[in-house]
Design goal:
Blueprint (H helix, E strand, L loop, with lengths): L12 E7 L5 E7 L2 E6 L23 H9 L12
Length: 83
């Protein structure tokens, strides 16, 4: 059975907002060892499709950086959308 945004509910689902060093904001969802990120594209909105592992400024974004910044977590699983 799938939960919100396709998460299967097997592990904790955590979400929050993260910002790249360039200032670009992202909405983040971490569930089942996968991290999804949606760039903020207006004062109150986010892009519909999640991004890969590169910020709109061209900087590489790692799961560990995002999870540590949001939750103080270390990354154990490497299974995700190429992260």
């Amino acid at each position: 059975m799938s939960g919100r945004n396709g998460a299967s509910g097997r592990g904790p689902v955590r979400s929050g907002d993260w910002q790249c060093n360039c200032g670009q904001g992202y909405r983040v969802l971490a569930a089942d060892g996968v991290v999804w990120m949606w760039p903020k594209n207006s004062a109150a909105g986010f892009r519909v499709e999640p991004i890969g592992e590169e910020c709109v400024c061209g900087a590489r974004i790692t799961r560990g950086t995002v999870l540590s910044g949001l939750f103080g977590a270390s990354v154990i699983s490497t299974a995700s959308r190429g992260w």
